[in-house]
Design brief:
Length: about 400
């Protein structure tokens, strides 16, 4: 079967969409039919330049920055089109070519003009203004970008919904997103991790307990909320260190804020780390905090640290709640004091934190295995191709 996987963002860029698209491309290209032959001939189409990514060792083909004519030819030559996020060009061309299209939702672009389900003026989770018909709220939400840009985002949401209603299958990584999208032919397939990775047993790290943050340093990730919680912990004389792993546009302002709030001696900024460096840094952590304000449809950082056996504290966004199950602790998104109280409880009770970490790892092994993700996608493609031939 010829499969065209369109992912606007792809390796070597770093992010959730890129990680899942790469894992899916590799897994499907290596998938074998019962007779031992390769079942899928995978072509990845992306707008991301190659950079330092080694394309020659991959079992799939990569086409970067194709023109419209080349994209049309690729679509016509394929059996099934998989679009990672509602990109307009491959959706339109796939429908024109009457190809079975799988649209995987890696964000909220089909129900929210800014794609984050975040109400920007309040920096708080959006209650669903677009789907409720409160369109003035949507236009005002993105007004900081200018009214023309805000209007364009709003109009494009209608276009994306129109196209998403006409694809052969919509896929979400969590079940709670299915009723939010309100789209036909929608099913949940969880993202998968390489559960064969071996992490050493995690005795409680000695010395001052470390709170770790891992992710991009941007407003939607809520790291300012974590800094507010850290200030509260310091005022209560609770010992801790805060390790910030990642980089982004907010780093300079966060470093300044740490100084202003007098928590700088407790905060260490690592910047972006390689996988090996990341494992070493997180080995020191007593707890990982994921304080996102919006924009999360799964939470790879949550699941990856669950696999490490680390206790995770996350904001109560629907995706995080579903991924964590009963193996982590959530707090109201944006509520720094509640986050601080949760952290205080875990820092003062390392046995509880350790128990959560062990249960979290078992949950990932049971529900978020990479092979299961690949097999579920393969089953969808087979069904669609069979239906298209009948």
């Amino acid at each position: 079967m010829k499969l065209l996987l369109h992912s606007h963002y792809f390796a070597p860029d770093i992010g959730g969409v890129q990680t899942i698209a790469l894992a899916l491309a590799r897994g499907l290209a290596e998938w074998r039919a019962p007779g031992g032959a390769a079942e899928f001939e995978v072509t990845v189409v992306t707008q991301t330049p190659a950079g330092s990514f080694d394309e020659h060792g991959q079992a799939f083909r990569i086409v970067r920055r194709p023109g419209l004519t080349q994209l049309w030819r690729l679509v016509r030559e394929t059996d099934v089109v998989h679009v990672a996020g509602p990109a307009l060009a491959p959706l339109l061309l796939g429908l024109l070519a009457r190809k079975p299209i799988v649209l995987e939702h890696h964000g909220f672009q089909a129900i929210c003009p800014n794609g984050q389900l975040l109400y920007e003026p309040a920096q708080a989770p959006c209650p669903g203004h677009f789907m409720a018909g409160r369109h003035r709220k949507c236009l005002g939400c993105n007004a900081a970008e200018g009214w023309v840009a805000s209007g364009k985002l709003w109009l494009l949401t209608f276009v994306r919904r129109f196209l998403a209603r006409r694809v052969a299958a919509n896929i979400t990584p969590v079940q709670c997103l299915v009723p939010l999208l309100q789209l036909p032919r929608t099913q949940a397939i969880s993202h998968g991790l390489d559960t064969s990775r071996i992490f050493p047993e995690r005795p409680a790290p000695p010395g001052t307990p470390v709170i770790a943050y891992q992710g991009r340093l941007v407003t939607t990730k809520g790291i300012r909320i974590l800094f507010e919680a850290a200030r509260w912990l310091q005022e209560k004389s609770i010992p801790f260190a805060l390790h910030v792993i990642g980089d982004g546009s907010e780093r300079a302002s966060l470093e300044s804020l740490a100084g202003e709030w007098k928590i700088a001696p407790r905060v260490r900024f690592y910047g972006a780390l390689s996988e090996e460096e990341l494992d070493g840094a997180l080995a020191e952590a007593a707890v990982v905090v994921v304080p996102s304000l919006g924009g999360e449809v799964f939470g790879l950082v949550v699941a990856e640290n669950m696999l490490r056996g680390l206790p995770v504290v996350a904001s109560d966004l629907g995706a995080f709640v579903e991924v964590l199950g009963e193996t982590g602790v959530t707090f109201r998104a944006g509520d720094a004091q509640e986050l601080a109280q949760v952290l205080a409880r875990l820092l003062e009770n390392p046995a509880l934190a350790g128990s959560l970490g062990q249960r979290a790892r078992r949950r990932v092994l049971d529900f978020f295995d990479l092979r299961r993700m690949i097999e579920s996608h393969a089953s969808v493609y087979r069904g669609l191709l069979k239906a298209a031939k009948e």
